[in-house]
Amino acid sequence: MSEIRCRTYSSPIGLIEISGQNGFLTGLNFREKAAESGKEEEASVFLACERQLREYFSGARFDFDLPLTFDGTPFQNEVWTALRSIPYGATLSYGELARRIGRPAAVRAVGAANGANPISIIIPCHRILGNDGRLTGYGGGLWRKEWLLAHERKLRTPDGPLFAGR
């Protein structure tokens, strides 16, 4: 088992630490300053992630195609997999997500799993709203969640992304 490596990517909404191991993306988290470790990595998974993030932020990418691995409980993995099925620009409530995974009484557990998502943006936990439709917690800060949702909304039509053929 190799060591987890990381790179820092400068996005329009701040620094993002990209983590990976053995050719898989393991983390994507917002940071206040660049990582100071000497473990920066040039591996293809990091380069592909940076390219896809640039495309996402420029409005040219609506889905991510990266090898992911995440270490969570079976329930967390179920929630994180369900999050990946939420279309670009769409939102769901915690309650609706709980119903979609067949656990309608597990709203709080779904919220906790959403908050523990290790690969933000790519596993789009920002697309989950409170049951009343309001913005609720986001590890990167509510202002980033609001920015991401507005970014996706401006490029979405009722039938999907404005330029889905790109």
Structural descriptors:
single chain, 166 residues, alpha+beta, Double Stranded RNA Binding Domain, Arc Repressor Mutant, subunit A, 2 domains, three-stranded antiparallel β-sheet, two-stranded parallel ribbon, 5 helices, 19% strand, disordered C terminus
Short description:
It contains five helices and seven strands.
- Radius of gyration based on Cα positions: 16 Å
Name the average pLDDT: 89
- The spatial strand order of the largest sheet comes to 1-2-3
What share of residues is helical? 25-40%
Task: Give the N-to-C terminal Cα separation.
Answer: 37 Å
Order of helices and strands: EEEHHEHHEHEE
Number of domains: 2
Shape: globular
Give a structural overview.
The chain folds into 2 domains: 5-58, Double Stranded RNA Binding Domain (2-Layer Sandwich), CATH 3.30.160; 74-161, Winged helix-like DNA-binding domain superfamily/Winged helix DNA-binding domain (Arc Repressor Mutant, subunit A, Orthogonal Bundle), CATH 1.10.10. The protein contains 5 helices and 7 strands. The protein is an alpha+beta fold. Mean pLDDT is 89; it is low at 162-166. Helix 3 crosses helix 4. The strands form 3 sheets. Strands 1-2-3 form a 3-stranded antiparallel β-sheet, covered by helices on one side. A two-stranded parallel sheet has the order 4-5. 25% of the residues are buried.
